[in-house]
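Lecture 7, part 2: worked example. A protein chain together with tetrahydrodeoxyuridine.
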Amino acid sequence: MEKLSIQLEAVTYDSAEELLQGDQELLAKAKDAVKTAYAPYSKFQVGAALRLENGEIISGSNQENVAYPNGLCAERVAFFYAGSKYPGMAIETVAITAEAQNFSMDRPVAPCGSCRQAMLEYEVNQDSLIRVILQGQSGKIMIVTGIKTLLPFHFHEPGLSA
Ligand code: THU
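Predicted complex, written out as C-alpha cells:
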C-alpha cells in the first residue's frame, strides 16, 4: 500500500494593483468579456481572456442555449477559438472571472472540471505551463501555475506525454 499526497500551490493577492502589468491587462479583458456572455438561463456570466506567446489576447464568454447542455463555458469558447485561429501557438496565461446576477461573486471563480480537462490538453501539447488568474466580481485574486495543478489525476491517453 502506498499513500499519495499532493501539494498544490496558489498565490493570492488582495487587489489587481499588486499584479504584473500584463496580468492586470488580461484580467481587465476577462472582465470586458463578461459583458458579452449569453447567460439568460443561469444568470451567471463568465469571461475568460488568454494571452498567446505572440502577445495576442483572445477572450470568450459563456454561451448558453435553451437546450441547456448545448451551452459552452467561457474558457472553452476562448481556448477553442485560440486553437482554431492560431493552431500550435502556445498559451501563456488565462484570466477567468464571473458576475452573478442573483448573488455577489466575491471570491475567485474556478473553472469547471470539463474546462480543466480541455485546457489541460493545450498545456500538454505545448511545452510550457499555462498560468491561471482567477477572480470573482470583486475580492481576492488567485494565481495558479499549470492546469495540472487544478486537475490532479487527470485523464490522459497513454500516448500523450501528460
Ligand atoms: N461556466 C463557465 O463559463 N465556466 C466555468 O468554468 C463554469 C461555468 C458557465 C456555464 C453556464 O453558462 C454558467 O456558467 C452557469 O454554470
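Residues 21-34 form the longest helix (14 residues). The chain has a mean pLDDT of 96. Keep this in mind for problem set question 3.
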